[in-house]
């Protein structure tokens, strides 16, 4: 006998079945509910999963829902960040609807919206971790689009982030459809591409690219890219004004050719600081995404461009020594770091470790991982080296070998030597490190005045 429903479509203790009747499940606690349906914790086929059960009216109005889900299940998840539909299920007493099971989101993951929340509810991720969040999303959508899918409705509600590691999970994947197919949704207004707002098209892979760029701008800048002077001066954000701002006359907050929708002081001062702190190459992607990309979908920034640019800068973040405002070392523009965008103090970036095209800031306590050094199968956070201070010389730093294998190192103008596990090599501009088949070079930015690199022949500091 099924448990009493208490007004809900499913109740704790209800049994449900896979469509082929080969596996059974039991409904658990309600996790959340929305316009499409409700999500429950459930036991199914010997494991714990999330069960999404649709409202009957939604099944009736979304005529392609069953087809989309069957196709998604057959093709499989693009990668393991997607909490993807795994199996369709039914309930013997609820024949007017159906549901599906998917992976259960761990409790510690929080909505990506909380990156923008006021304290104390805000997720306080460093700039490096925010770039990592963007990289994961770009990588996942590259995989999604490579399977011929489009997501259709990118918005804050689809993404969850781990508050310390920055790892991302992507949910609400039942809107995913084959690119070019009939759309089930238009999207969420502030994330819709202008041509969708104008109802000139329906969601597709190119509109996904626009929505993804909006999400990245929120993550890195904390604001919508089209909300500038026009939105700030509006007494009331009417539907007509929204249609203009995001559809018929969109204009980027930082457009270099038309400042009529530019930032307004003091309201947007912090946005200006964050924008100026980004390297020019990253800013240029946003300028294209919200410049020519606003009205020409074929000119939008693709996932590989975001990935390549962010990979070069993600580990090159450092804080102002005075106010601790975070910056990114712009190796593309040159070695000089200039002034802090927030307090105008002269910046003194730490030495950088150059591995291929990636720069890693070597501030005190910084960790270089095996993955950084090209070990593709290594756990992402497994340490290869850590920056430590010289035990007898305060202010002098070295790179400690935390692996089980020795390194070959060659200081500038010096002799090649070996650094055994647990030993440290002094940081010096031009120092070359070989670990296995991989190489790296220490680069000391010109702005550093306190870097004590020692003489050219000095390689060891313990």
From TrEMBL:
Organism per entry: Roseibium album
Annotated PANTHER family: PROTEIN KINASE DOMAIN-CONTAINING PROTEIN, SERINE/THREONINE-PROTEIN KINASE NEK
Pfam families per record: Pkinase
Keywords associated with the record: Kinase, Transferase
GO molecular function: ATP binding; protein kinase activity
The protein, known as: Serine/threonine-protein kinase 1
Domain Protein kinase: 25-313
